[in-house]
Amino acid sequence: MEKSEKTVDGFRFLPPSLSAWIQTRIPEQFEGSIPWTPLSKPVNQATFSMVTSAGISLKTEPPFDMEREKREPTWGDRSYRALPKNAGEGDITVNHLHINTGYILKDINVMLPLTRMREFEEEGIIGSLAPTAYSFYGFQWENNDFLTEAIEPMARQMQAEGVDAVILIPA
Amino acid sequence: MGLAARLLEEARFSTVVLTPMPEFHRVVGIPRSVAIEYPFGRPVGDVGDSKGQREVLLETLSVLAKAEKPGEIWHLPFTWPESPRETKWQPPEMSPIVSLYLDEIKEARRRAR
Out of A21, A42, A144, whose CB is closest to B104? Predict the structure, then answer.
């Protein structure tokens, strides 16, 4: 369903060869059912969390494993990291072999906008920002084990922190 | 990321995916997508552009409230100020999977011409 005059072209920034290849690997349209949980309260009363697939970790914790992926190109790290809501550029490292990670290191908000969401919390635009945000590693090649190893544990912590809604931001 | 959104939605969270590649919806079926034509790795906005980041995020929040049924994609009107080549979003080294499939990738381009 298109809702505005502009239609985003997700292939615009890709090299033509990579674009052509990806287009051979995705279907014309999705067939099947899609889960649905309506927002249970207004945005200005809801508690939010955020998830990014950019491979962000705290400097105090082990980084996402890039070395194994370099040896085994179809393997992607399936772990996840919890990130405190007050984390900033000085607290993090970023590991991702499919993007230039330098921008996130300069300003975490380009990928995981914790500062902006804390501002929204202070201004009353959102109800609250949960204590924890999350990162996993987005390169998961024909393997969905990350759902049980990373996303399910996140969901349990979100439930414990009273989260209503989640913004997910892929790299 | 679409599969993660589906799992969270099934776990009774309302989700929205802010994505530079809305076409991936066609692979997995995503409950709510907000599409943005920004380079990979900076979907919220450029370094230091707090005003622009706020605008993108406010639009994303609004879709949580106004999307009416699963599978909707809301396309944001914002445009990135640089040409694709100038964005320098790609990693310093070719990714392992692209190296592995390089012949197939080149062949896909030949066929698309």
Answer: A21
A 100-119 residues inside an 8 A Cβ radius of B:
100-101, 103-104, 106-107, 109-111, 113, 115-117, 119
Helix (H, G, I), strand (E, B) or coil at B35: strand
B85 in contact with A, Cβ within 8 Å: no
C-alpha angle with apex A18: B27 to A107, nearest 5 degrees? 85
In the prediction, which pLDDT does A17 show?
92
pLDDT at A64: 98
Whether B46 has a pLDDT exceeding 60, the answer reads: yes
Chain B residues with beta carbon closer than 8 angstroms to that of A51: 1, 4, 8
Residue B113: which pLDDT band, with cuts at 50, 70 and 90?
confident
Beta-carbon separation of A110 and B60 below 8 A: no
Q: Are A50 and A113 in contact (CB under 8 A)?
A: yes
Asked if A169 reaches chain B (Cβ–Cβ under 8 Å), the answer is: yes
Confidence of residue A103 (pLDDT cuts 50, 70, 90): very high
The helix/strand/coil state of A2 is coil
Q: d(Cα A163, Cα B15) in Å, to the nearest integer?
A: 11
- Indicate yes or no: CB of B111 within 8 angstroms of CB of A20: yes
Q: What is each CA distance from A19 to A12, A59, B73, B80, B85, in whole angstroms? A: 8, 34, 21, 19, 14
**Is it the case that residue A114 has pLDDT exceeding 60?**
yes
pLDDT at A1: 47
A43-72 average pLDDT score: 97
Q: What is the pLDDT of residue A55?
A: 97
Hey, is the C-beta of A13 within 8 angstroms of any chain B C-beta? yes
